[in-house]
Amino acid sequence: MERVLVGFEGARIIEFAGGAIGLLKMIKGERAWDIVQIQLLPEWQGQGIGALLLSQALAEAAEAKATVLLSVLKVNKARRLYERLGFSVISEDENSYSMRAMP
Question: Sorted alphabetically, which keywords does the UniProt record give (predicted)?
């Protein structure tokens, strides 16, 4: 439950045709925005929705001149999507990469 509540004030439910299909949690600081969580139901993955959500977030951050940060598990294939959208690895630990996109 503690993990669910982290950044909850920045949570947006993603809806389609009146139903929830995902979640985007983003904490907006003055100079950096942290994408805490992005999830789509399995049947909605691979359709470009995640890329669209992230592209919109990056465009908003660019207008605010804010850097966007996120963390991704090393086993998560979404890293390729993040790199395609302009994120680069800035550090890593045993299990995950920290990534950043500059405005």
Answer: Transferase
The string of pLDDT tens digits covering residues 57-78 is 999 999 999 999 999 999 999 9
Distance CA 72, CA 10 (A): 19
In our burial notation (b when 16+ CB lie closer than 10 A, e otherwise), range 38-51 reads: bebeeeeeeeebbe
CATH for 2-101, among 3.40.630.30, 3.40.50.300, 3.30.565.10, 1.20.140.10?
3.40.630.30
> pTM to 2 decimals?
0.86
